[in-house]
Design brief:
There is one protein chain. The chain is an alpha/beta fold. It contains 14 helices and 8 strands. It has helices spanning about 5-40, 40-55, 55-65, 70-75, 85-95, 140-145, 155-165, 165-170, 175-180, 185-210, 230-235, 250, 290-300, 320-324; strands spanning about 70, 100-105, 120-125, 220, 240-245, 260-265, 275-280, 310. It has a 5-stranded parallel β-sheet with strand order 6-5-4-7-8, with helices on both faces. Strands 1-3-2 form a 3-stranded antiparallel β-sheet. Helix 11 links the parallel strand 4 (about 220) and strand 5 (about 240-245).
């Protein structure tokens, strides 16, 4: 008579289940290792972008109007004898990161036979953001975020947890704006980075807010940098009197825009009078107490019954929304 030893069968089944569980745990552990290594070397991605911008690789290909070989790119680099091997390794990594695209096109010899392919590198939607002279470019932001004075700040995160305070001030002894006032090169770089992001965000603001600005006769951009945002608004609505408020060392380098008046001042102390206040990416930089001080000055600057404060800020979603 055939029968199954039930306890043995169940035990064997449990052994198989246990082995699979161990295999899954080991697989997850390996995946975790890969993730940590990717995060560990993530800084290299930013360094690659900086390298590409400093060498002007995207600009070179953009000017050429078509993909280029390594030797063609090297011939236009700001260097008398660039290292082609090093350039290839950098381009290979940037291709893997989808910053550039590589085309392998065979080269014909004198008899018409194809030889080893000569790789050509072209732009992608990603690398078009690295073209300095592009209508919309993030090249200044890449340079500013990887500037020698900016990178050491990231090494102070643990100190901030232990001691509190602001990382930038721990490194440089002054806040970001004080450092900019004393260092013209950094001031120019920071202002350029803010200006390039203003072009991007204002394109969305003007599209979404539509005719919201048309109701105002005057508008002050508090902390408006060198004035790109308010200039874009005034350009679209010429009847609006634009006022750009920022620190003296910032507005000192600001270009002149038709319909815009630059005012040197301190948003914690006083804001110029206007029908409305516009602030883009300002309040997130400050504590609740700092925000209250800024907003109190804004309140005194606008009409009590009809005045408006228009804020452009990033809104963080709660974890529940992220999981939905």
């Amino acid at each position: 008579m055939w029968y199954c030893n039930l306890p043995t069968a169940v035990s064997h089944k449990c052994d198989i289940g246990g082995e699979k569980k161990i295999e899954m745990e080991e697989e997850r552990l390996v995946e975790g290792q890969v993730e940590i290594f990717q995060q560990l070397f993530a800084f290299a991605d930013s360094m690659l972008l900086k390298c590409a911008v400093e060498l002007g690789i995207a600009d070179i290909i953009h000017r050429n109007g078509r993909p280029m070989t390594l030797h063609q790119i090297a011939a236009e680099l700001p260097a008398p004898s660039p290292d082609i091997s090093c350039l290839f390794r950098i381009m290979r990594l940037l291709v893997r990161k989808h910053v550039f695209v590589q085309h392998n096109r065979p080269i014909g010899d004198e008899n018409g036979a194809s030889c080893n392919p000569q790789p050509e590198f072209g732009l992608t939607p990603n690398s078009r953001w690295l073209v300095r002279d592009g209508e919309l470019s993030l090249a200044p932001m890449v340079l500013m975020q990887n500037y020698p004075s900016t990178l050491p700040v990231w090494h102070c995160l643990s100190r901030c947890v232990k001691e509190g305070g602001v990382a930038f001030e721990k490194v440089h002894g002054v806040d970001l704006w004080g450092y900019g006032a004393a260092n013209p090169e950094f001031n120019h770089l920071f202002n350029s980075a803010m200006a390039c992001t203003s072009k991007i965000i204002m394109k969305a603001v003007m599209a979404e807010y539509e005719h919201g600005f048309s109701r105002f006769g005057s508008l002050v951009d508090v902390g408006g940098g060198t004035g790109e945002a308010i200039a874009e608004i005034v350009k679209t609505y010429p009847h609006v009197k634009g006022i750009n408020l920022d620190l003296p060392h910032v507005v000192a380098t600001a270009p002149q825009y038709q319909g815009v008046t630059h005012v040197a001042g301190d948003m914690f102390v006083e804001s110029p009078k206007a029908d409305a206040v516009f602030m883009k990416w300002i309040l997130h930089e400050w504590s609740d107490e700092g925000c209250i001080k800024i907003l109190k000055q804004c309140r005194t600057a606008i009409p009590e019954d009809t005045g408006k404060v228009i804020l452009v800020e990033a809104v963080l979603q709660c974890e529940a929304d992220e999981d939905a």
